[in-house]
Amino acid sequence: MEDAGPVTQAPLCATITITNPSGLHLRAGKDMAYIANRFAADITAENLTRPSPVVDIKSILQIMQLQARTGHELRLCAAGADAHEALAALSALLDPSGAAA
Amino acid sequence: MQTFSGLVAAPGIGIGVLVLYRPDQAVPAHAGAEDERAPEAEWQHFLQAQAEVDAELKLLSENPNTLVAEIFAAHRVMLHDKTLLDAMQNRIMQHGENAVSATHHVIGELAELFTAFDDEYFAGRASDILDLGQRLLARLGAQVNQLALANLPAGAILVAEDLSPSELTQLSADQVAGIALAQSTPTAHSAILARSMGIPLACALGYDILHLTPGLTAVVDGFRGRLYAGIEPDEMPALRRRRDQFLASQAAAIDHAHSPAVTRDGFCIPVSANANSPKEVAQAAHVGADGVGLLRTEYLFRGRAEAPSLEEQTRTYAEFLTQVNSLLTVRGLDAGGDKPVRYIVHRHEENPFLGLRGVRLLIDQPHILLTQYRALQLAAAQAAPGVDVRFLLPMISTAEEILTVRNLLSQLPADLPPLRLGIMVEVPSAALIAPALAPLVDFFSIGTNDLAQYVLASDRTNSVVAGMADPLHPAVLHLIRLTCEAGRQAHKPVSLCGEIAGDPIAVPLLVGLGVTELSAPLPAVPLIKETIRDLHLAECRELARQALACRSGIQVRELLAQP
Q1: Which of B30, B57, B389, B410 lies 20 to 30 angstroms, CA to CA, from B315?
Q2: pTM, whole model, 2 decimals?
């Protein structure tokens, strides 16, 4: 994780690789939105492998717009008091091998 | 009478009136404008519809078929999605649109956005959005420019190009006598659903059926994969007789569900149920299952911070042993990179299907294996006599794996008798060396779903190739035959679990190949038992011999559909 620091206003970001064999399909997207909604922080994602908009991952309809497949790299950014925890939880979900930790 | 031949997808015979179902793309009828309401009232109108749709989807997401359940669980999440709700609120509250028109616009825009995606899978999700939109519009009382599936005339023979799971679940067997599809495959979601709902279905009938005249008398023969249309009065009695025979056998199935399934020449084939949850274990005895032939324990391990303890597992298995009739087969945790569990560190794998999963993971994490086995041993020690308790190892591919597991299990205290230990035969190598593996195990359990995927190198979850993973492909049948023969020579039972164990059309073939026990999806158990009672083993063996000589899964299905 980069930019880790005590300031909560600046977003914390992390780059993770999707390891789920079907990519961020409907079911995986549902789990991702579910976890994101447990945090107060604003959390966005962008697909670095296939051009995508920067989306709000508290919405499954926006997550689908990432069109993320296995092996794609996502940049996740979180801003808010629990940004650090949010990124840790999402990284654990998306890349259980822990490459982003 | 015109006859259309396709593939068998769900058994049964339906006679009724032909109805054509041709869903238009969601073109909104200009509806809902007649009653003007204040924006706040429109918003409440929408929230009410949303709550009603949520209740519908909640019911659908409790479907015991996990594939179907997950689709509707995801629709439910979409229904509460902030992107959808923000757009709806904006149109209704800021722009004064009524709820119907706002729903048309928001759903239409989202579907359009998705349809334009490059990636076929994600573009295909537009159909999920439209599906959700149709549900909302129906609850809002809008005139939907579609034949409302819920309002079909009773006894309809529904003819369509294809049907989505959502469309199918709107149907009931009371209304729909049969379904005839121009495309689709027997392994598609629509076929699985139709079977579970008891609606006869024939598929791959060709596009000509879409030009038939609605209102004709028509028959779907789900045993032969046929649609008959424009039936002459003198042709009716024979068709009716076949249908009545089938209905009588179905009624008999439920009446006799609790008796054993014995073939006409006196061979008993125990029929157990597959269970994915405590609820399904509890139901197994009620539907007449001779036991639980495959308890998938993944539900116990998933969605929690640490593995279930020895005490918790012992309690769970002990309770199950009080519920089942005469058999409980517990499969060891079947996890891997494709089915991750939180407290196991899954290493990154390029190809998790061929990676550290099943027994490989259990050997890598022996504490999980040992705890699970010991818990079942402790539960078995408390159980009433008469229940056969077995432990099943997932995804065995070599003899060394069995020996390693036996070696690990020998570390446990020797105070309790060992459990009967068997292996899943779902990797081609295990089937090919089954004669060498048979002395090392107490039973085989053939997992046809995964076996078909591995043999035909086709991912069932990839819609482009899923149709190739046909468990009735002759290549799969040869491996089933090899495994059965090895079991027979070593006097070890050979069970078969998987979707086809619940398909009455496939059962004569499976019995003919030498399978000695079946473990079927729960709702199919009574009909499978009744099917077995009508079989003659010598005839089944001849059928198996012919099937093994076929060159494709489609040829096998044609063979099975012959009268």
Answers
A1: B410
A2: 0.62
